[in-house]
Structures are given as structure tokens and as C-alpha cells.
Design goal:
- The protein is α/β, with parallel strands linked by helices.
- The chain has 9 helices and 9 strands.
- The protein has a 5-stranded parallel β-sheet, sandwiched between helices.
- Strand 8, helix 6 and strand 9 form a beta-alpha-beta unit.
- The protein starts with a strand and ends in a 10-residue tail after the last helix.
């Protein structure tokens, strides 16, 4: 009988130790019959399930053109092959073909018969659509690959819960962009251009449904520059929307103040798998946090205008190999993290996102007032 394990609950050294013929599967959605999947795989002893792709496919409630989704999934599978895995597959409902050849398994799925509702269908929705995007990537010896997804998924859900009349959240998307993925095992990569194309298509779908305000919320730093490109294209393509993003959560005015007030590490202690993320996962999923394995790494190549911390500083933007600065995948001091601080910082992150949602509403309202009054070129029919 096949044992299925959750890939994203592992740490990167555990992925590095997996036999390279272990089947690894990226599902579109959940709810497949695992006995049927085991049979399709030839009933191996073990197989790894990666985080399901929650939408983007026909039947999910929010579908983009299949060639765009297919390229994104192909890049994710390539990430696993680059790590040496020889049996990698996308699992899809039977009605979907992403042109993945032998790397595709199709099984019956409930959405073939009853498409899943995802967002309110009303065309005049005044809610901001929250779009939380995490990632599946290494987080040192002590945190799971799901760290970014767990954190931003929680923040998205809690933001919606705090202001349900003002915001509605999509399910957290568990994959992003990692240009450093070859340094440590386990990290996936959508590919920058495929990531941009996919999310711009999502904006197109939301606009067609009548949504005019979207907020991309990233839990992973590698996503941010690509999301900036998405919103620039979206704002040009759809002139009456307000589509926004921000640097990582807990990094605005509220977040910066809370970090400074409670942190126990010096500058450099919160870059990646450091004090902040470790504290948050200690609060959210202590069962996946291995404090006995923490290795603090703060000896980065730091200069006045380039250094690593949660709120990055300096005027230089660069992307040197992670291997230059960390032997374990961690940038920071995870050993000083506490669940108590994790709770404080998560609550602050939600407060910050709530404030952003209110500001997005205000921006869109005031701009619409100007447009409707015929301000500037709007009065000339442009």
C-alpha cells in the first residue's frame, strides 16, 4: 500500500535525502482518490504530494487560458527534475490536458461535474480581492518548505475575517518565483515570465467579473518584483481598476514599529528563516518547527547600501548567489524566536493589511469621482 506524504511539510535536508525515484505529484485541486493515484503510479512504497494548485484550471471557479497554466506547471515540474527526481507528475481532472506528455496523470474529479464556486458572482462587488501568494521553498534546517504559504495564507484569511464587507480572499497560492532555487534542495520555481502571465490572466478574469480592486499579498520576497510588473501591466490594460501590491507583510509602518519593539535579534536576524518567520511558524504550526535543528547565520556580506533583513535596507538592488552568505539556507537568528512574538507579529500583519484595504478603497473611490466628473483627459473621452 502506497504511503503518501506531504512534501511541503519537509525541510530541505529531508528532501535532499529522498530517493530520486520517489514519485512527486502536483495536483490541480484536492479530493482525488488516492488508491486510484497509487495504481496509476504503479503502487510505489512512498509518494509525495505537493501543495495543490487551488485555481487557474477549468472547474476551479477561476480559470485562465490553459497554455498559461501549462507553462507554469511545466516550470514547477522542471524544478523537481533539476533536483534529480525522475518521476514527477501533474495530477489533473480528466477533462484537462496541459500538454505535459508522460508527466501528466488524469483522474476523475468532482469539479468535472460540479464546478467549484470561488468568489461572489455579483458583478458590482465592492470588495477588494485579496490574493495571497506564498511559496514552496527551503527555510533552513528547522522550518518546513510551506513556511511562506502558511504565513501569508493565515494573514489573508484573517484579513478577510476582520473586514468581510470590504475584502474577500482567494485561497492562498502555494507557488512563486525563486531565482536561487538550485542552491538548496526542495525549492520550486514558477519561472518569472510564466508567473507574470498567469497572474495577469487572473486579473483579467476578475475584471471581467466586475471586480475593480485587487491586492496581491506576497509571503515570499522573490515574488515581489514580478508582482510589480503584473500590476503595472494590469493598470495599463484595465484603466478603471486599482490593483496594488506591497513589499512583504509586516514591513510597513505598523509592522516596522512592531518588529523594532519586540525583536530580540540585531539587524540581519530576520532575513529568511530567521527570527520573524520562525516565531510565526512557532505560533501557527509548532509541530512543523524543529528548534533543535536551528542554525543562526548572520555573517552576510553586508555593506552600507546592501544588506539582508526582513525590511531590506540600502539603495542597491542585487541578486547574488545565496551560497555566498549561507551554508544552511537560513539568513538570520531563528534561535531567539518565540511563539509569543509570532502571535504579536501576525496580528500586526493583519492590522497592516486591513489598513491597506481601506486605503485601496479610498484610492479607487477618489479616482472614480475624478473620472466621473470629467477630470483632465477623462472629460475628453479618453
Amino acid at each position: 500500500m502506497t504511503e503518501f506524504f506531504n512534501y511541503d511539510e519537509l525541510t530541505w535536508p529531508e528532501v535532499a535525502d529522498l530517493p530520486r525515484d520517489t514519485p512527486l505529484i502536483i495536483p490541480l485541486g484536492e479530493g482525488y482518490n488516492l488508491d486510484q493515484l497509487a495504481s496509476a503510479l504503479g503502487n510505489p512504497a512512498r509518494a509525495g504530494l505537493l501543495p495543490p494548485i487551488p485555481f487557474g484550471w477549468r472547474g476551479s471557479g477561476l480559470a485562465v487560458p490553459e497554455p498559461l497554466l501549462g507553462q507554469l506547471v511545466a516550470n514547477l515540474l522542471d524544478s523537481l527534475r533539476d533536483d534529480g527526481f525522475s518521476r514527477v507528475y501533474a495530477l489533473t481532472p480528466q477533462s484537462i490536458d496541459l500538454n505535459l506528455g508522460p508527466n501528466h496523470i488524469a483522474l476523475p474529479h468532482a469539479t468535472q461535474f460540479t464546478p467549484a464556486p470561488l468568489l461572489p458572482c455579483t458583478l458590482a462587488s465592492d470588495q477588494v480581492v485579496l490574493i495571497p501568494i506564498g511559496h514552496t521553498e527551503q527555510h533552513g534546517y528547522h522550518l518546513p518548505l510551506s513556511t511562506d504559504t502558511l504565513i501569508i495564507g493565515h494573514i489573508g484569511r484573517e484579513t478577510e475575517k476582520a473586514i468581510p464587507d470590504s475584502a474577500v480572499a482567494l485561497p492562498v497560492f502555494p507557488y512563486g518565483v525563486s531565482t536561487h532555487r538550485q542552491a538548496f534542495a526542495g525549492t520550486l520555481n514558477c519561472g518569472g515570465r510564466a508567473f507574470e502571465d498567469f497572474w495577469l490572466a487572473v486579473v483579467d478574469v476578475l475584471v471581467a467579473r466586475g471586480f475593480t480592486k485587487m491586492y496581491f499579498m506576497s509571503g515570499h520576497g522573490g515574488n515581489v518584483s514580478f508582482l510589480v510588473t503584473v500590476i503595472k501591466y494590469a493598470g495599463e490594460r484595465h484603466r478603471r481598476i486599482f490593483c496594488a501590491t506591497a513589499w512583504l507583510h509586516t514591513s510597513g509602518k505598523l509592522g516596522a514599529e512592531a518588529l523594532a519593539r519586540h525583536r530580540r535579534s540585531a539587524r540581519g536576524g530576520m532575513g529568511h528563516a530567521g527570527e520573524l518567520e520562525t516565531a510565526m511558524i512557532l505560533h501557527l504550526r509548532p509541530d512543523l518547527t524543529h528548534m533543535d535543528r536551528v542554525v543562526d547565520e548572520t555573517d552576510f556580506v553586508t555593506t552600507e547600501n546592501y544588506y539582508m533583513d526582513w525590511i531590506e535596507g540600502g539603495s542597491l538592488v542585487a541578486n547574488p548567489p545565496w551560497d555566498d552568505d549561507t551554508a544552511t539556507g537560513a539568513y538570520g537568528a531563528g534561535s531567539v524566536a518565540t511563539a509569543e512574538n509570532g502571535k504579536i507579529w501576525l496580528e500586526t500583519a493583519v492590522q497592516e493589511k486591513v489598513a491597506h484595504v481601506h486605503e485601496i478603497h479610498e484610492q479607487h473611490r477618489r479616482r472614480e469621482e475624478r473620472r466621473n466628473a470629467g477630470f483632465g483627459l477623462w472629460g475628453q473621452g479618453f
